[in-house]
Amino acid sequence: MPLYAKRLDDLGVEGSFTFGAEIARAIAAGRDVVRLTIGEPDFDSAPHVNEAGIAEIRRGNTHYSDPQGILPLRQAIATYVARTRGIPVEPDRVIVLSGAKPSISLTIQTYVDPGDEVICPAPGFAIYEGWTTFMGGVPVPLRLREERDFAFTAEDLAAVITPKTKLIMLCSPSNPTGGVLPASLLAEVAAVIRERCRPDVRVYSDEIYEHIVFDGAVHASIASQPGMAERTVIASGASKGFAMTGWRLGWAVLPTADEAQTFKRQVIQTTSCVAPFTQEAGRVALESPASYDQIARMVESFRARRDWVVPALNAIPGVTCRSPHGAFYVFPNIAGVCRTLGVLDAYDALPADARRQTSPSRLFQLFALYRHGVAVLHRESFGVRGAEGQHYVRLSIATSMDQLREGVARIAAAAADRAGFAQFMTEPESRR
Ligand SMILES: Cc1ncc(COP(=O)(O)O)c(C=O)c1O
Q: Which ligand 1 atom is at minimum distance from the Cα of 98?
């Protein structure tokens, strides 16, 4: 009997966390590394939020709390979501979780039986795909199109809906592309869902980057469309907008109070509750005008970096890069680099087994790290389904301008180093 259950193989693991070990190895080998992999703001949580959390700990608010989330926070979330999405939200439909990530597994566990299909954006947050296969479901890629700034069309969605569709994952602003789904597109998407899907088909709307949009864009939620609030799980949290990744605070608004209770039952059986002082700090974050001033400053800083990095990447021969409308990532297409650097030929020359373990963008990623000291994430970190023949990397721009300048200079050097790449392919690091 094997030690580990077989289903563990299907879970996958988030690339930005695992590549950390690779970066540590490169650093241990003496390489200075510019990290453009981090999926969190390079800003600290705001002083008024920190003070609120500390005060709660000082006054002894350090015990178990309501597994669904403390009522004052659920009220604050309900008020905020109702106002920003233009829909009624009652606190008994809100569940508070330790980050936005747990709502992904809870949603898939709650609604997906073996054989059910889950439509996942491709590229997208790979955890959607991992939890689907872990639960015996079937991930179905919904291709995001570069030429549409990484949106999809209502027809694209209609083409992948089948009678087995149970869950449709949406993410806007998107990790990894920075694409944003405008309200006009969401209206068309909602019409397709209303027409083609049974009422028990759920939409998971990942809105964790809701605060980070550029160029005057306004975040739009599919839940605001007629008839969609009763089908949609709205997921968000404090991690990205409020720069609170380490506090572990997220939430979901469920279509019904009954569905929120099923989530609560699973929280009781796993983590019991979110730390109450974290929740109080989250309430202060949501309700204080000062939080939104900090968000505005942070977003302006991401915008300025985006406006520098996109033309700088486009200036590298073989790279094309769209300007993202939200989040803090850029997702350049490196197909030209893979061609001129010899990556595609090197990949094609690998034995079939080795080819299955890697990809052209993975080879470029390892080369850029081990030979040029710059860490980025490769295409398959964002789902393997729908990734065939695609050559992209993701850069996080949540880092200083100095680091960004240095990182892009190193990518440019890697992209031009054909001899270095040929040599690298003979070395053990290329097979990691
Ligand atoms: C699309 C998306 N959803 C959810 C999460 C998880 O957020 P949290 O840290 O709040 O669990 C992330 C984090 O990278 C993300 O990119």
A: 11
